[in-house]
Amino acid sequence: xxxxxxxxxxxxxxxxxxxxxxxxxxxxxxxxxxxxxxxxxxxxxxxxxxxxxxxxxxxxxxxxxxxxxxxxxxxxxxxxxxxxxxxxxxxxxxxxxxxxxxxxxxxxxxxxxxxxxxxxxxxxxxxxxxxxxxxxxxxxxxxxxxxxxxxxxxxxxxxxxxxxxxxxxxxxxxxxxxxxxxxxxxxxxxxxxxxxxxxxxxxxxxxxxxxxxxxxxxxxxxxxxxxxxxxxxxxxxxxxxxxxxxxxxxxxxxxxxxxxxxxxxxxxxxxxxxxxxxxxxxxxxxxxxxxxxxxxxxxxxxxxxxxxxxxxxxxxxxxxxxxxxxxxxxxxxxxxxxxxxxxxxxxxxxxxxxxxxxxxxxxxxxxxxxxxxxxxxxxxxxxxxxxxxxxxxxxxxxxxxxxxxxxxxxxxxxxxxxxxxxxxxxxxxxxxxxxxxxxxxxxxxxxxxxxxxxxxxxxxxxxxxxxxxxxxxxxxxxxxxxxxxxxxxxxxxxxxxxxxxxxxxxxxxxxxxxxxxxxxxxxxxxxxxxxxxxxxxxxxxxxxxxxxxxxxxxxxxxxxxxxxxxxxxxxxxxxxxxxxxxxxxxxxxxxxxxxxxxxxxxxxxxxxxxxxxxxxxxxxxxxxxxxxxxxxxxxxxxxxxxxxxxxxxxxxxxxxxxxxxxxxxxxxxxxxxxxxxxxxxxxxxxxxxxxxxxxxxxxxxxxxxxxxxxxxxxxxxxxxxxxxxxxx
Length: 728
Prior knowledge:
By secondary structure, this protein is α+β, with helices and mostly antiparallel strands. Helix content is 49%, strand content 16%. The chain is flat.
């Protein structure tokens, strides 16, 4: 095939929607550049190499992408397979096109190894980050992958398996989330054919056999539908669709079905002019044919996260089961092309990367969240986990009180929902209401649930137990960040005070800079002043050792070590001396035998984050760190204390429970508490005129985990509105 014949093939595709001379000239220039650079190169099939980028560009043109993306499709292999350079492409075609081509080259150089988890992680990371940076990179990559899969037969068996696995694990799910059904289905079927050839052949045969035997039935049903809809003077068209082979296999595997039990293999699709006609048509169909209970789905009012919209119903006619889909012309276009149906390039108003991303972000909530995740997350691996666990595997759809749809992965809880809405909402969560009823934070959300999150400005925030409750990578990541941030801030402050105490004791003054700390302590991972304080606060670096290093004195003398341990007035020690007070199971560092007691204002229990306060004349009082009284204490009288390892001691704590004043609710609360290892020491109840009541419990429990479990089970009692630990 000669150069002009090849170009004509491309021109026939792009000229269906592009006509401006500057656009056609740019694409022609890219074609000529690629033709020259790939000259003499052949594919494994024996075809001229230029046919591959041509076919990629033709696939892209089917989605009516902008001229820049067409050019990127033509040049996508130019940096890897020819002597062309990034600088050369940038000079000739501009920075925008050069950046897309370079992004594609980096992706192509990755090698997917299904047995090597670390390599797979790197590939996913690059894919996700490239997608967030410029969605057009993935559009070209999907088109490139489709055309490579179509010629997979020319490669050796090992590469066929590797590429097919990569396609099924990475590219098909991305196409699905973009709503590009046709491309996704073809990727899946080709990959399935190479990975599971026997299963592929058997299902393909069964589909062919069933299709042949069912055509008469489908034709008869179509005739009935046409007569029925025509009698109601509805403007429509009817066509059929058949499930792709891999989706049939997946349904058989996930639902444990035999092939004969797949009822939606063949479906009739009714295309109408408007949304109101969709509902009119479904009413007409149900007036004539008996619908199968529980099989009606309204994806028009509640679109799928990839924007798919349609009404689905399953009806019985003459003993046969038929699935019928009803949608508008626009919905049908979106069902096939996904969000690409919205970004179709129109020369009248042009297109840019920015407005392309705006369109996608507005249509696909998950894409806007992906961009947000890449900006907020600390590591590439964190972004990958969120994308693969939360985005690709989302299949539970719940509602906010305003009716917005939130998609979550299976097993998600109200905590996952809260953190998906906003980080601050998650951190302030104190309870949840689902479908109008109070539920525990461990509640497993189901599709259709309406979720409302209860918050408090005085909320303590996430704790370690939340990591067990949250199921999505996004929520778990944010909880970990909160806990790490909270712990780091506390330890930096602790380290600062210990450092300043030692400086004052030695009557020294040292001018600290980040550079000085980095130069002296980089071997310990310290790169800033805060890092140094953090290591001191963790007892990894002693304040005296830090000062000696800063002043050029490298070792600790024996006298200094004794002084550091025994200097009592400051109560700030390095952890060399630890005293365990068995009566209350609390460790105090740096003091020989102080009097220690648990504060009654906040009643700490084993597992709480605690701090010691040196009282005047009565020893050390141990408080929960969130106790309101701690904020009023003199900071120099606060010391570090820690829980010991005695798991047998019991601790008293107080709960305040808001309830509806109904019969037997107090008895139910007491029964639940005692059934969960609590010993009730005191109960009081106070009702008001609104038929609400406040129940106060004083009880003994073994640790924070037991208390959390009691609260979770109390929240399940009908009529319990809220539960809080009392902090006086």
